[in-house]
Amino acid sequence: MIEVRNLTKRYNLVEKPAADNISFCAMPGEITVLLGPNGAGKSTTIKSIANLLKYQGEITICGYPNKSIEAKQRFGYIPEVPMLYDLLTVDETAEFIGRAYRLKDYKERKEKYMELFELTAHRNKLAKELSKGMRQKLSMMLALLIRPQALLVDEPMVGLDPASIETVLKLFVEMKKEGISILISTHIIDIVNEIWDCAYIMDQGKIVRQVRRGEEGDESLKEIFFETTKGEKKEEKI
Amino acid sequence: MRALAYLFVRKNLGMIRNQFRTITSGLFMIFIVLFYGGMVVMCVAMAKSEYVAETMAVGTNAALLAGIGMLALLTVSTMVTKRKALVYETDAFYLYSGPYSRGQVNGYILMQTVLQGLLLGLLGTFMSAMLSINSYFPLRFLFFSILVYWLLMSFFLLLNDYIYMWGLVNRKYRILSYLIPASFLAAAAVLFLISCMDTDFQLREGFLNFALGENFYYLPFFGWAKWAMNSFIEGNGAGAVLGVLLLLVFNAAAAVAFLRFDQDIAEQAAADAEEVTAYVKSVRERGVQPVETKKVKQVRAVFREGAGAVFSKNMLLMKKTGNFLRKQDVFLIVFYFVISMLVMPEHTFHMFCYMMIFWMFNLLNDSDLMRDLKNYQIYLIPDSPLKKLVSVILPTLFKISIVVAAALVFAGVFTRMSAAEIISWLVMVLGYVMIFVSGTVLSVRLLGSRTNAYVENLLRMVIIVAAAVPSGAAAVVLFIFMRDLVLVTALVSAVTFLMNIAVSVLIVISCQGMMNGKEL
């Protein structure tokens, strides 16, 4: 579970907070999506959860403070732009993560994900030799390798081809069935339309609406999103 | 052209504005300008405004040669570098896809080159000023040297761009980028040889003859620059004007040739701009220079567990790239040793030790250390932040210590120093290696992504000075009680070493939180 309580983040010299006292929870066995237009505060929230920013408030992962070793052991993070060591091969990168996280039985899992993400043929290639999509797949594999109980995904489908997007979506659904909390931040609603369980819509640093699957009535998540975010803008203009 | 001139002005103003985008970085920028500007003002204030050849000739000429020498090194490294481009990627996109004639594009690049020449000119002046505290360096000479160095560097930057452009048209012209620096070096070597011949190959006297004599003036551009400045100092107006005029005429000729260049090089120029931009970005963001894939060796990977995996990973990367010691570092170390031999033949080893500390300023700015200090993947590793920080800094610490130790032992043996003295100085310099590494950690901790080479160096200087206070005090106390200089030197080395270790450990412990990411 990823739990965010009263998160507020202000950047230097910017009067308005990028995240303004927001609270939400990504439950185990659910896919939670964080939606919002550009500048809504999604990236700030994601970086705060990954403990990459100073903030006010409390963030826990599986009940542990996000900076604790216990939280890090249970937490997988797939950033929008993969951060890889250019001169390590695919195999070496996986080996590095496996050893750094002291994983006991990761080799079998590594092979499974290599196969799934079509990385097997590229296992001896340096990270810098991989295409953009392949780098993204490797980044995903690293996050999954640690068997996270909470997975944070920032714009997951950037750079992936349609077949890979399908594979990743199926994988997320499988993981949720295993009881893993998955929090996805995106502004491409169509991609998560089939798999989401709970959605939080952010605008101007605040969570302006929470929707659970089944509560959306006749409207699609996309319609709710536009209604919520455009409605705010109209009010501002008035 | 007005649009490009507007872009040029706005872009440069934007760069200045960017330095003040936060209070912290603005304050740091003001501090840096005041610090370095203050050093120049101090030099101008302390230096003499009247030139007395008998007492100041050596100091003044050495300062001029240091400035010219540094700019010559920059020129050579700029010309022989393989990665070249006229502009960065964004400029290339707008210049080559926009509605501009080739002349206008060249004009824009020319403006950039002249500005770059001015900045390098300021750097050369700073170098000369720093070495002129006890000799001649009045305000009027400060401005004159800026002008001369500016003209000197503008010419070579323009020449470099011009050769690069013709090299895109036909690869055979690329050889000029190597031939020209080589011929200058050969000419300088011949002049030095002649100076040595005049003094029966007494190195020190030969060097003095080279530095003070007029043979050097025959070396095109660099010699003319020195001729102009020496003439200015000696009150020889005609020589000063003629020297400047020579540089000015060649600058004008280079500018005309540059502006009239009319070949279609857009495709390759844009591709090179992209490559150089990616290279610079990589060095700035991750502190690492991209390595060519074909140069990466195959090495068996063995990783330790937990934070130790970071150490193993860095050692693996070092083995893969064979990047233990770069060619330019070997060149610099040898260069420093030769300079030490020439300037202080009786104390070559001691001067070399100090030169190695100076070398470290240059070395650490592009070390692999920066990459890991800013990498979220390291932050997320579930291990203690102190262990992670130690694992990140150890490979760099080992690498620099081994290089420094090898260089000092070689220099010590070559200059026939006693083993005790070599060890004593080695211990002291190794203490500084720790300070340099921890100084980098502290600057990233304090400034995060806004850190830059100037701030890092400034912080290192402050830390070094702070750490040196106790050993300085200890030296005075020990000398008062013991009156034995050799023993005191050995004890001071030990105290400096211990102080540097203590300060480094303190910095590392207090900065450990950054390896969780949040505090950056």
Which structural class best describes the helix and strand composition of chain B?
A: mainly alpha
Radius of gyration of chain B from CA coordinates: 25 Å
Provide the low-confidence segments of chain A as ranges: 232-238
Rg of chain A from C-alpha positions?
18 Å
Number of helices of chain A: 8
Strand content bin of chain A: 15-25%
Domain unit count of chain A: 2
Q: What is the CATH T-level topology of the largest domain in chain A?
A: Rossmann fold
End-to-end C-alpha gap of chain A: 40 Å
Main beta-sheet strand count, sense and barrel state of chain A: 6 strands, mixed
How would you characterize this protein structure?
The complex is a heterodimer of chains A (238) and B (520). With 238 residues, chain A is of the alpha/beta class. Chain A has two domains: 1-74 and 151-156 and 176-238, Rossmann fold; 81-147, no CATH class. Chain A is 36% helix and 24% strand. In chain A, strand 9 (198-203) and strand 10 form a beta hairpin. The longest helix of chain A has 17 residues, at 221-237. Chain A starts with a strand and ends with a helix. Chain B has two domains: 2-283, no CATH class; 308-516, no CATH class. The model of chain B has no long low-confidence stretch (mean pLDDT 84). With 520 residues, chain B is an all-alpha fold. The interface between A and B is large, with 34 and 37 residues.
